Amino acid sequence: MTELADLATPALLVDRTRLERNVASMAGAMRDAGVALRPHFKTSKCLEVARRQLDHGAIGFTCSTPAEVRLLQDEGVGDLLWAHQPVGPAKVAFAVEALRRGGLMIGLDSAESAAPLSAAGVTVPFLLDVDTGLGRTGVSPERAVETAVRLAALPGLELRGVMTHEGHLGSYGADRTGLEEAGTQAGRRLAEVAAALRVAGLDCPIVSVGSTPGATSAPFVEGVTEARPGTYVYYDSGQVRLGSATLDRCAQTVLTRVVSAQRPGTVIIDAGVKAMSSDGLAGGSLGTVCDPSGRPLEDVAFVNGNEEHGYLTGSGTARLRVGDLLRVVPNHACGTTNMWSGLHVLDDGRTVDRWPIRARH
Ligand SMILES: Cc1ncc(COP(=O)(O)O)c(C=O)c1O
């Protein structure tokens, strides 16, 4: 057991009670919705967290990168979805090897990305990636049938269903009603695409939505069969702003100390963008500043960061002294995870364990 005051800063903390509550409550909500839960692994990249999600009934995981797929396959976790187009010779070679190991589906949206996999002579279970509003990857619903027919005709390609990432819900800000409506709409559009594929004679057992802000809407649409939220294991300041969680559900914080206070109105901490990631900087904040117990300091803002320095402003900085400990709830838990090789498990104000974070870039 280590007291927070004895840890070298900055340090990444995960509150065990909050983590376990988040894992259990999302599993319960998805059970109530009658859908399977396939959490995105990118949020934690931590096997100790993944095991808790599996213990609560997750069917497997969603991955973004080859390293995430490999780590989970090496751990013997089956039923993985690699929700990223494997383009380029190195990624195709990895995908072929991973597909041969079994228990893997790939998200695809074009014949261009599917053809090299087909040519490798391997069986490729896949979900058709459909754009329901984010405007990132994914075919438009109007082009879904034509694309699915084309992909399913390629040797080795086996259509298992459809997927979408309703990441555009993040643009609704504090308009939770608008966000919920857009989440329901995304689920409906995907379920309609699945129905159209079936009319065209294709099998489409999996209808997979996926996001934390959408987890209260899209999975509850009739016809949706699985959900892939990721951020919910920790939540973060971004999700609090969207109304997906309250601050007391946020499990991940960065422990930091005030290291300099030379100018009135500004103090400098030892957590910069290499501790937080720069996610959210464009929105004017790198996270919610709290005291060591996790209570937010409403009059202190984390407005900027260099690599290893953070800039706090606001009237509350007048109380802060060099050496003071603070905790910051990051804007984006997933980006923050990727900055760290390990996390300290926090229990009742002390750290009780250290878990590795793996499969980072
Ligand atoms: C394809 C896909 N599925 C699921 C998720 C999980 O969404 P969230 O981070 O909102 O939980 C993401 C997040 O980027 C994603 O890209």
From TrEMBL:
Coiled coil: none annotated. GO terms for molecular function: D-serine ammonia-lyase activity. GO terms for biological process: D-serine catabolic process. InterPro entries: Ala_racemase_N, D-amino_acid_metab_enzyme, D-ser_dehydrat-like_dom, D-ser_dehydrat-like_sf, PLP-binding_barrel. Keywords: Lyase. Signal peptide: none annotated. Residues 251-347 form the D-serine dehydratase-like domain. It comes from the Bacteria. Belongs to the DSD1 family. PANTHER family: D-SERINE DEHYDRATASE, ZGC:162816-RELATED. This is D-serine deaminase-like pyridoxal phosphate-dependent protein. The lineage of its organism: Bacteria, Bacillati, Actinomycetota, Actinomycetes, Streptosporangiales.
